[in-house]
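Researcher: Quick sanity check before group meeting.
Model: Go ahead. Protein one:
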Amino acid sequence: MSGPTELELAGQVIELVRRLGGPTTQAEAVVTRADLALTRFANSAIHQNVAESTVGVRLRLHVDGRTAAGSGSVVTADGLRALVERTLTAARLCPPDPGWPGLAPPAPTPDAPGVDEATAYAEPGQRADRVGAFVAAAGGLTTAGYCRTAHRSSAFANSAGHTAQGRSAEAAMDGIARRDGADGVARSYADRLSDLDGAELGAQAAAKAQAAVDPVELPPGRYEVVFEPAAVADLLQNLSWYGFNGKRYAERQSFAEPGTAQFDSTVTLVDDPLGSSGLPFDAEGTGRRALTLVEAGTTRAVTHDRRTAAEAGAESTGHATAGAATWGPMPRNLRLSGAAAGPASPVGRSTTGTAAGAVVDADTAALVAGVRRGLLVSDLWYTRVLDPKSLVVTGLTRNGVWLIEDGTVVRAVRDLRFTESYPRALGPGAVLGLGAREVRQPDRVDGVWWAAPSLRLASWHFTGGASG
């Protein structure tokens, strides 16, 4: 790599702040080089392959009791100077910031897993191979989706003398197969592109699409449900953003009550940023580490950046992000684990018509086998929070819903709208089973994932058809 490193650029920014803003100005800078690549397919053919390589600089400074942030992508001497000058100007126009928590002091950066170089520098043909395998495994059904890879190299420096640096890489695939208007979905997130099996994902999506044809209407009401990992990921995302967010907790907009048994005793939730190839520090330079949010049903913690930690009399948990002053710090790599569901039943045990392929893994089969009457749900989408405090969410099912009777998937069901409190649905006594295998699901935001097993819940409130 030619030119200055990320750490050298971050140091140059801090030196410019000292020269232009004076020795009392507090500043922190993050420099990130990102290589992002995306291969999209539709109508069973690749229609777009895009890649971008960027360098981004983010500066936050505190001067004369006021705080401002700025960013830029021009890393020449003139570009960095312009960034510092306009951020200093913005700070003078900002209102006083009495909640400024100060800068992170010098501290060691935690060790992070190594980066898979083959993923970091993946070629378009390697992504295309996985797309081709997905399409072929769908057996002639119409397919669409993407395969993506990302590599980041990032460095942090502040005027208190703290520095940190690290790298991350990731790969993800998300695809659907369609038959007669019925869709099946399969998704996966991995640290190594080689761990993404396009053929396996394509076969799963196709089996679910075949099983989803000719759906019937079901009346609204409360049903026992088995959620597949893609649906569970939505639960984790909303619990993350609205429940374990330190800013929302301080503002009393969160359901979280640390020390209280708010969840079923089978539920443990851990934010695990170093459980994959992630950056070992946050936007304030604080080291990232695993944080147990729920332990055997009892809420233990919420996430903090330096600002919310200072307000709460706590320490930062390493969850600062750009924009956290507005949105708050949140867990972004949440892992749900618990007791295994028990011995697995044979995969696809249903033999009833087109529903035979609805169950595509042993964990889900084990959970389905215990349901007398309920629903198997592949995916949730368009979810919107109605009440942040109780985390009542409304949304829709998609990509396959099936009726379960006496432990057998019997037929497809039309999509349904639901309105449900996520903490209530996961509350004491409400979780009837968890799969043993966590499947990491990709988020729309790069570097964010949700590790989700299949999940069996005693009750979920469906309020009507998807068009209602």
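Researcher: Fine. The other one?
Model: Protein two, sequence then structure:
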Amino acid sequence: MWRVDFTNSEFLRGPSLSSVADGSLFVSNPDAVHALSASTGDEEWQFGVDDTRFHNPPIVVDGTVFATTNDPSGQEGGDGKGTSVYALDANTGEQKWQFDEYEDTVAPIHVAENTVFIPSQFCVYAVDAATGEQRWQFEVGYGVETNPRTDFFAETATGTLYVADADGNVFAVDVATGEEEWRADVGTRVTTGLSVVDGTLFLGAFSSDIEQPTNSELQYYVSALDAATGDERWRFTLNPEPGLESPTLEFVTVIDDTLFAGSDACSDYPTCASLYAVDAASGEEKWQFEADNSVNTVTEADGTLFVGTALGNGDDGVVHAVDAETGTELWCFLAGNLLLSPITVIEDTLFVVSRTDTDFEDAYRLNALDTATGDEKWNFIADSDVGGPRFADGTVFVSADRATVHALDAGVERSNEDGGTDDDSIEDSGTDENSGGNTEDEANC
């Protein structure tokens, strides 16, 4: 429908996109933040700062665009401008405020409850979203824990910020004052993002009683904590007998009354690389779906779970459609070497970005699949670096080739890009006559 080309020859990273707000798509390019008309691609404004680089997608909240720069040389008196958070008027691009009283960030910022939370290495800073004034800073002794596959370092709910450190501690912090409400030792290390649902904080972790354990001597589990007190309500253990298997948890998410947890592949044991369905109230297992590679992402729509494996790591990226009640596979789609984005479902179409090797060259694709069958409706091919897609009003926006933003007809009408629930050469595949797909090459998906 349209494309905008940027000049990024000196940068290895290309544009990253916000969600669409009030008809505008906001693009964080290394040299500037750009506001584009979502319908035409025309530039509405741009905001840049000399000798600094923007990184991470912009965040748009209540008419304000929050953008971050990452140029640590500025902290040491070099040519760069340092690390900063900028608040920009979404309509005009005018700067509202700038906050730079911190060192390099270790994860993207988190905006909630009129507060911008900034994760530095050993501190979380809280800044008033309207004024840019620092409210407080909270020290995290062992460093803020981050997961490279998640887009947040913390979760907020009912006036409380939850954050984990690198030593297996979880902190509950009062959003208004920065005072610690409680802390809980949940094990040796937290391995997933934090999720708060109906007064319970869910996370994945591992622990060991051995002073210097090997990976096989660790025990992996989902822990459900009382969000008000930090007391553990239940624990679901993936490997009750450490030493036999080591399935690290990749994510936990709650949909309706069920918690879904994905684990990675490990040493060819049958319970590794699985999606677990667990009763969110009791911690009792409902079912387990075994996959061929690390289970990294899941999205639900109309009673079906769409499960992605090998997200950003490994090989054999596969999308599985699984019945949410029984764990039965409905179809699967071999996406190529690996997936490069979480799965989004809008109406009857599933969208995911993948990569595959073709004659020793990489091909990057945005795949659109029929949710009922797994049949591919269309794909968009780029030479390199297809970013995570954004959606609005029947259009899918995607960055590609480190320099271009494309607006494509998505083939759907609804504008909500959170159509599910909620960081490659494509042929359809099938395991039986009822599966989507029709090629012999992909029959082993």
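Researcher: One line on it for the slide.
Model: The chain has a mean pLDDT of 84.
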